[in-house]
Specification:
Layout lengths: L3 E8 L2 H12 L2 E4 L7 E4 L8 E6 L7 E6 L3 H10 L3 E2 L4 E3 L3 E7 L5 E7 L4
Parallel strand pairs: 1-4, 5-9
Antiparallel strand pairs: 1-5, 2-3, 3-4, 6-8, 7-8, 8-9
């Protein structure tokens, strides 16, 4: 069954937001290695939990985007459209990790679908 595997918190100032969440929840938060204004949240090291990030706000409506792991990103994107949702962007490949694609549900809530690469 598909599960939420990642979350992104949108912020006007990602660095300040990252500092806020680090102080409040004692999460380990690190800036992306490429120097972009994207901050990885590492909140599952000692206790079970999903990882996340703080990044730049893309629009005024969506503050948090949940990412859901799927077996096939193409099959899931087709089901999103057939069920009344909308695919927002082309597939984004994350080298060594997998492919992600952003979508809207019929209510206009953003979410992402993620297919991890396999070693097959």
């Amino acid at each position: 069954m598909p599960n939420v595997i990642y979350f992104e918190i949108a912020a006007d100032n990602p660095e300040e937001a990252a500092a806020f969440y680090s102080r409040v929840f004692n999460w380990k938060i690190e800036r992306a290695e490429d120097g972009s204004d994207y901050w990885y949240i590492l909140c599952g090291e000692d206790d079970p939990g999903i990882e996340g990030a703080v990044g730049a706000r893309q629009d005024e409506w969506n503050a948090t985007t949940n990412t859901i792991e799927v077996e096939s990103i193409n099959d899931c994107a087709k089901r999103v459209a057939e069920a009344g949702g909308r695919v927002l962007a082309p597939i984004i490949s994350i080298p060594g990790v997998g492919d992600v694609q952003y979508c809207y549900d019929p209510e206009g809530n953003a979410f992402a679908i993620m297919e991890y690469y396999t070693d097959e």
